[in-house]
Design a protein that fits this description.
With 147 residues, the chain is of the alpha+beta class. It has one domain. The protein has 5 helices and 9 strands. The strands form 2 sheets. Strands 1, 2, 3, 4, 5, 6 and 9 form a 7-stranded antiparallel beta sheet that branches. The protein is globular.
């Protein structure tokens, strides 16, 4: 697939309520694990892609809606609790054991949606499956939408 096609798919997916293009699929079970519970939960969504983090970042490189702040969109290896945060209902010890001595690669940044809403994006690769039993080789996208 050409990078321009991937970029178009990613841009269309980001504008929709949840990524529905071929390279992204909704992952509500992962949103339920890693997003906070309660009244803030509907502001979050999760999607997964079979592409690794570097391929996703290359596809996003020309997206004019990305907010280009210093340090944004730069991949970093982080401990799992830093990657996934502390607000979700996931089992932190199980996720730490799942990664073992490895660390997930994480890129964060903001994006302006077509309607002007600010979205905070967290990209994580590899990512745990919903059972927290294995790591998937693609990329998890966690989005917090602020109105």
């Amino acid at each position: 697939m050409a990078w321009t096609t991937t970029l178009v798919i990613l841009a269309a997916a980001a504008a929709a309520p949840g990524p529905t293009a071929a390279s992204w699929r909704d992952a509500p079970a992962l949103a339920a694990l890693f997003a906070p519970a309660g009244p803030r939960a509907p502001a979050y969504r999760a999607s997964v892609s079979p592409l690794d983090l570097d391929a996703v970042l290359r596809a996003l490189a020309d997206d004019p809606a990305l907010v280009r702040a210093p340090g944004a969109w730069e991949p970093r290896a982080l401990p799992p609790t830093d990657a996934f945060g502390l607000a979700g209902r996931y089992d932190r010890l199980r996720v730490a054991r799942l990664y073992g001595s490895r660390q997930p690669r994480v890129a964060r940044g903001a994006r302006l949606a077509d309607d002007g809403a600010l979205e905070t994006w967290t990209l994580i690769s590899p990512y745990p499956d919903a059972t927290l039993r294995r790591l998937e080789p693609g990329t998890l996208l966690l989005v917090l939408r602020r109105r």
